[in-house]
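Chapter summary example.
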Amino acid sequence: MKQFLFTGYLCMSILLCGCKQVKAENPEPEQAETAYNAETVKGKAKIQVAILLDTSSSMDGLIEQAKSRLWNIVNTLTTLKLQGKEPVLEIALYEYGNNNIHNDEYIRQVLPLSTDLDLISQKLFALTTLGGDEYCGAVINKATQQLEWGKNDNDIRLIYIAGNEPFTQGRTHYIEAINNALAKNIFINTIHCGDAEEGIDGKWRDGAVKGKGKYFNINHNERVRYISTPYDDRISGCNARLNATYIGYGELGEYSKQNQRAQDVNARSISAANETERIVSKSKSVYKNSSWDLVDLAKEDAKAVEKIADKDLPDELQGKSKDELKVLLAQKEAERKTIQEEIETLAKQRQAYIDEETKKQGDGGDDLGKAITQSVLDVALAKGYTAE
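The structure predicted for these 388 residues follows.
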């Protein structure tokens, strides 16, 4: 049996390669633990993805794949539209199989369904591994019961559970947990890490069949292969200019600006290509930060400038008139749009280059990211979504 140690609370110590860390000056605000982007989602379809990771000691490779594929998953899912409209993307994260979690099932909700992509990255990069007992049925049941799943017919509700021990362990039987999920139209996808026959014998495939999802068998220790392109450096060069368009406000403002930069560094610690994928994600509409960025808030709420208290502004903006603030926000919004459009153009050229190289080299082995993106796309297209 294996176990996985979560290095909680960060305050903001975010794990990088080896023993390197990125630290923020301010402690993490309590709100950030369960921060949920306060955008208006009424009437919008949702793609909701809960990722349940076996965090035992043999799963270091799986965690590295999750870190390596987060931004690629986001970028793939942002190609989806329903009747010409972009759905809301929400991701949740659970860890299981960790004896350092002080409950009898060794399960912890790392993050509820959230649109806050920086927070998702932060929590993912805080994970490390150390021994335990892995109860698949129990963690599926927790995710089903605890998360705020959508009820719209157009919503896509998916659970992905990845691990390598038998699917049958624990007091909560996996079939009972799956039936509870199906009652909410949540489909279960299983990702077995290791020998294919062991995955079948251990009921991972049966879990996917009964959960109306897909079964994958991956080599979790395989490193994600990246294709470098002539566009990576140019996209990377846009990032500092893009970050400069963000104006933090309120209790989360300064902390979240630091976290934004920290997640840039975390992405870069995996590879230059992974950093590029993150920057591309930041150019898309799914990357919204109205909970701490005044520019995004003003786009959502035309009266935001009138409502905000002077004390909630960064020091350099306190004392400015409302009209001065509006002019500044308009300038920052225009700058951001120009930079994002530049990144979008370069990203299309980059993807075309990658597609061509993939035809020549092959797409490599299966991994966690490919399993998730492939199956979400299949479900979405079957529900009438289109992919650009």
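To summarize the output: Strands lie at 13-15, 21-23, 46-54, 80-81, 88-96, 107-114, 156-163, 187-193, 215-218, 386-387.
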